[in-house]
Amino acid sequence: MDLKPTKPLSGFIELSPIQQRCFDFCAARMQNVLRVAGFSMLDLPAIERAEVLTDKDNWDEIETQMFLFQKGDTKMGLRYDGTVGLSRYVAGHLNDLVFPFRASQFSKRYRGERAQRGRYREFYQMDLDIMGINSLSTNYDAEIISVIGRALDSVAEFIGPAQVLIGSRPFWDAVFDWLEMDADQKKDVFVLIDKRDKMGDDDFAEGLRDTLNNADKENAIKSVFVKGYTEFAGKTVALDAAIAELTGFMRVLDEMGVKNAKIDLSITRGLAYYTGLVFEFKLLNHPELGTAAGGHRGWGGNRIFANLCGHVGKQPN
Fold it and tell me: Which of 66, 86, 154, 176 is most exposed by smallest CB count within 10 Å?
């Protein structure tokens, strides 16, 4: 009789009993911080309808990105993040929720892409979101950062200290408009900025040259990382607004007791629906792990996701 394999599939993790105890202990500590901060714990379905998970019509195009399957006439898939399911939930319970609505999820997520170092096909993710109707002030962004910081501090004996890096999509949008860049150039330069730390200065400069082919525009973008963002004050109304927002936001974080925050405009968080302030937490004792936590404001509020909710139900107004 052929022996069946004993190892899990590539990209799936199994922990030893002692590792599992440590994992559960840390997760419980962090979730307790979120509960005390007023976040409601949600346990949403692991399987969603395919039309909820994606807007794409071509099933074959997304098969490699998600775990998709079909039962009868219904196409379904395993959740790949917490955003889509939360948007569906909010759209379906608008009359049952009190806004701003603070929600947290801690559950397994699934990605169909090829497994590689640091990227798994099955993994746990802890989410916290504040959703509002119409608009939310950036004070809620600061609240999210403060709560994440306290959650990480609750397990600092295991992971060490953390630092949060703050970026601004509105600032870069205003810079690009001031430089009269077209849509393709904006998209390509955002990618370059997002990868700048890994590329190094020389490769970053070469990428700007290939994309823009304009020395003045290239130097203007590079100067952000040399002279700082305040050098762009007075250029346009949009730039002045973005600079004021970022400066004011850092002041609010300080007033909230967040002392480990630093502006880093290479932080852009690549997805298109990230429209406002963005941030990433780094573990100072474990830089090899990359980003420990990250967040953003999307489509008008700190993960308001008005447009996403509109795709799966009636849109907040």
Answer: 154
Whether 123 and 226 map to the same domain: the answer is no
Which residues span the domain enclosing 260?
A: 161-299
197-206 contacts, C-beta under 8 A, 24 or more apart: 197/266
Contacts of 3 (CB under 8 A, 6+ apart): none
Question: 193 and 216 in contact (C-beta within 8 Å)?
Answer: no
pLDDT tens digits along 232-248: 999 999 999 999 999 99
Q: Are residues 167 and 261 in the same domain?
A: yes
> Given the DSSP bridges, would you call strands 74-78 and 68-71 parallel, antiparallel or unpaired?
antiparallel
Q: Clarify whether residues 3 and 94 are in a common domain.
A: yes
187-193 contacts: CB < 8 A, separation 24 or more?
189/221, 190/268, 190/270, 191/270, 193/221, 193/265, 193/266, 193/268
Provide the whole-model pTM.
Answer: 0.87
Furthest-apart CA pair in the chain: how many Å? 77
- Cα pseudo-dihedral 260, 162, 85, 310, rounded to 10: 20
